[in-house]
Amino acid sequence: MSENFTSSSTSEPTKKVTTARQPEPAFGWNTYSERINGRFAMLGFVILLLLEAFTHQDLFSWLGLR
Fold first, then answer.
1. Max Cα-Cα span within the chain
2. How far apart are CA 61 and CA 41, in angstroms?
3. Which pLDDT tens digits describe the chain residue by residue (66 residues)?
4. C-beta separation of 55 from 62 below 8 A
5. 15-39 burial by CB neighbour count: b if 16+ within 10 A, else e?
6. Phi, psi values for residue 3, rounded to 5°
7. What is the pTM (predicted TM-score) of this model?
8. Contact 43/35 with Cβ under 8 angstroms?
9. Which DSSP string corresponds to the chain?
10. CA 18, 22, 26, 30: dihedral to nearest 10 degrees?
11. What is the rounded distance in angstroms from the CA atom of residue 42 to the CA atom of residue 17?
12. From CA 37, how far away is CA 31, in angstroms rounded?
């Protein structure tokens, strides 16, 4: 009982794996700084909603401005 096994590595060439290039931090108006700014804005908005949900006060009342 002899079985013939063929290796797929010999019939297919090896493929080079490339990774996506990540933007690097830089100063000024660029896509990286705008993306980070948007993420911080979303995070701040969620924190503000959680603050209002737990304290049952809006931001101005919580800060003592009203």
1. 89
2. 21
3. 556 655 555 667 788 888 878 767 777 788 888 999 999 999 999 999 998 999 888 888 888 887
4. yes
5. eeeeeeeeeeeeeeeeeeeeeeeee
6. -115, 140
7. 0.54
8. no
9. -------HHHHSPPPPP--PPPPPP-SSS-HHHHHHHHHHHHHHHHHHHHHHHHHSS-HHHHHT--
10. 110
11. 34
12. 10
Structural domain boundaries in the chain: 28-66
Q: Which residues, 6 or more positions from 24, have their beta carbon under 8 angstroms from its beta carbon?
A: 32
- Hey, what are 50's tokens? 């959680």
